[in-house]
Amino acid sequence: MKYFLFKSALALMNALPLRVVHGLGSLIGQIAWLTNGDTRHTVETNLRLCFPELDPEDRDTLAKQALAEAGKTILEGGKMWRGNPDELLALITSCDGESLIDEARRQDRGVILAVPHCGCWEIVSIYLAKHYPMTGMFKARNRPGFDELVRDARQRMGARLVPTDASGIRAMGKALRKRELVALMPDQTPTGQGEFADFFGHPAYTMTLLPRLAKSSKAVVLFAFAKRLPGSEGYQLIVRQAEQDIATLEVGPALEAINASLADLIREAPEQYWWLYKRFKKQPDGYPPVYDPD
Predict the structure, then answer these.
(1) 205-249, pLDDT tens digit by residue?
(2) Could you tell me the end-to-end alpha-carbon distance of the chain, in angstroms, rounded to an integer?
(3) 73: nearest Cα among 294, 281, 291, 275
(4) How far is CA 176 from CA 75, 109, 149, 278, in A?
(5) What is the pLDDT of residue 293?
(6) Per residue in 225-253, is it b (16+ CB within 10 Å) or e — as a string?
(7) 201: left (phi over 0), alpha (psi -120 to 50) or beta
(8) pTM, whole model, 2 decimals?
(9) CA 30 to CA 166: how far, in whole Å?
(10) What is the DSSP string of the chain?
């Protein structure tokens, strides 16, 4: 029954114009702000940590915007997972920095795309998989119907999804050695190997897979996100270079460079970052907890 309702909700969001979907998403964000629950508190905590230079009124404004954008993220999933691929591609008005991908491949290097939880991350892979051979990781949730729906949606433009295990890592390394693209989400707290690195001035447990993969394959690391345009006019795909060549660095400095580059990218549209995520939940020994106990 839950799966049927979920599919029905996706179908409804796909049928509605993007402007209406985003309007409903903004309404969800407004409700989250007014109810003053855990979601709002998490956003406020993250913004207080990451933007201490803002005065309280400006942080409140940013928090309200972030909740509205989060609502859009939730509801636009119906279009991203169920929509016609050609219609989705038409929503991308431009790709700023795509030449960086082509330049890396001309240099006979693979590309690791660090795609954070910012803007509409689902449409990033839809666009890039259409134009380049691309591999990404997929972690099954042990919900067969849901897993199949998401996997099929993300692979329908040609992307190849591999498991989050040793075989998947080997597959990504092989793809990079063939000058292909590999997509990873660099801001997700790893359940496996990770180390603490500075993120907006605070220690954040960060995956070591990305820099190790870059170093072993000599791949170029680029950052990408799809920025929502005003008035729901579509998306601008933005690709940026890392502040250093990650493949040339040891793990510690590489993690610092990755998080610094990620912070720079987020600052281009801070309201569109997924501040609902408890990025600082895991802290080094001896550090006080950042969030209220669950």
Answers:
(1) 999 999 999 999 999 999 999 999 999 999 999 999 998 999 999
(2) 29
(3) 275
(4) 33, 7, 27, 31
(5) 64
(6) bbbbeeebebbbbbbbebebebbebebee
(7) left
(8) 0.94
(9) 42
(10) -HHHHHHHHHHHHHHS-HHHHHHHHHHHHHHHHHHT-HHHHHHHHHHHHH-TTS-HHHHHHHHHHHHHHHHHHHHTHHHHHHS-HHHHHTTEEEEETHHHHHHHHHTT--EEEE--SBB-HHHHHHHHHHHS-EEEEE---S-HHHHHHHHHHHHTTS-EEEESSHHHHHHHHHHHHTT-EEEE-TTSPPSSSEEEEEETTEEEEEESHHHHHHHHHTPEEEEEEEEEPGGG--EEEEEEE-SS-GGGS-HHHHHHHHHHHHHHHHHTSGGGB-TTS-TTSS--TTPPPSS---
The tokens 């692979």 sit on which residue? 155
Q: What's the token pair of residue 54?
A: 């803002």
| Amino acid of residue 12 | L
Which one-letter amino acid corresponds to residue 106?
Answer: R
Here the tokens at position 115 are 């795609």
Amino acid (one-letter) located at 278: K
